[in-house]
Every structure is written in structure tokens, then in C-alpha cells.
Amino acid sequence: MRESLPRSVRRVAALVRHDLRLHRADLTPLVTMTVMPLLIMAFVRPLYLSSLSTRYGTPPDGVPFTGAELAVPGVAVIFSFFLAADVGYGVFREHGWRTWDRLRTGPARPFEVLAGRAVVPLLVLLAQLTLLFSVGGLLFGLRVRGSYAAIAAVGVCLALCLVAFGFVLVALCRTVMQLNVFSNVAALLFAGLGGTLAPVEQLPGWVQALAHVTPTYWAMRGFTGAVLDGDGLGGAVLPCLVLLVIAAVLTVAGLNRFRFEDRKVSWS
Fold it and tell me: Which residues of 170-188 are buried (b: 16+ CB within 10 A; e: fewer)?
């Protein structure tokens, strides 16, 4: 066991380095998924400002709201879901290049292949969330009344949840077109149900009931708790735990459905 662990780590690291080279060769997706949400934040910020005034009235600390308190986390969560499909692109790319069978019969074990395919999408999601909160905060005057550590913890748990969701999409989809469609539909559906487009309390009752089973709701609850309500790291414990539970459930579902021998149809 002690001898196999380093070899296992080296095999996973080799897959990660390969994925990193491919991502560095084309940074367009990450750049697009960072610039577009920043533009959207500029448009929706006045609408969120109106929601904040209705919800809170006068800010408890006397510092005026800017609208960024909901615009930045809301738009960041929405666009993070669009990147969940990045998990599947690595698998579909291997099928398109006719290298999947060689990867299957190579020295890397199935769990090492899946682990290697998860690391880079996880890093990309964390980079996107970090950029959107940092740049969006600077551009639109986001003021965090609570803990930055709480925001970071929720961001990590959300990214893990999205990687697990990406594996479910890979397991269910046969073609890359299906992957694109289902990931985009899921992003918009979770956005509407989870309170990223409008505060949950302003949504219809049936939506409020469904919101609690969506990862977007718990991500927004964790982010807005730190940004608006002044929550510390302790306030992020419940959202983080729920996101991790959702991630675990999605991981089990994806692993139970995923078959290495399934044929996937890429662009080519």
C-alpha cells in the first residue's frame, strides 16, 4: 500500500498536468465566463439594489447598499454552473480523439482517471469564483460585512458540488451536445429556483419550497450571510455542510451510473 500510493499520485498528477496544458492552450472559456458575468453585474445591480431596499430598508451599519451585495454572488453562482460541464469535456475530448480506450487500458486505475479529470475543473471553478468576487467587488463596490473566510469556504464547497454535478452529466449524456444542453438548462433552472435571480422570499411559495433542495440556494445563503448579515465562519457551517452532502449524493449517483465502456460522441 505504501508503495502503490506514490505511483497512484503520480498517475493522477500526470493526468492533471495534461489537462492543465490543454486549458492553458485555450483560456477563452475561462475569460468569457469571467467577462460576461461582470458585464451582467453592471446591468442587474440597480435591480438588486431595489430588492435590498425592500428587504432591509436602512442598512444596519448605516453604509448604503450598492446592489453588488446580491449582484456579485448571484451572477457568480449562475455562471459557475455553466462551467460544470467542463468536467465532461475532458472525457468527451478523449472519445473524440480516440484515446479513451488507450487511457482505459493504461496503468491508471478508473478512480485515478476520474480524480485526474476532476482536479482541473475544480481549480477552474475556484479561479472563476475568486475573480468574480474580487473584480466584481472592486468594480461595483461590494462591501463584505462579515468574514472573507466564510465566503471562501462556501466557494470551495460549491465548487466541489459542481464537479460532482459535472460527473453526473457525463454519466447521463451520450453526446457532447446533450452535455451542453443539459448543463445550460440545469444552470438556468437552479438559478431560478435557488434565489440567484431574485431573493427567495420574493418568489412564489412553491418555488420557496423547492429552493431548499438546490445547491444554488445554499450557496447564496452562505454568500449573502457573510456579505449582508455579517456572518463569520460559523455562519457558513450549515450551507457548507448541505453543499457537501449534495456533492456526496451526486458523486455516488454519478459513480453508480458511469461506465468506462460507454461510447461517447464528441464534436468530431
Answer: bbebeebebbbebbeebbe
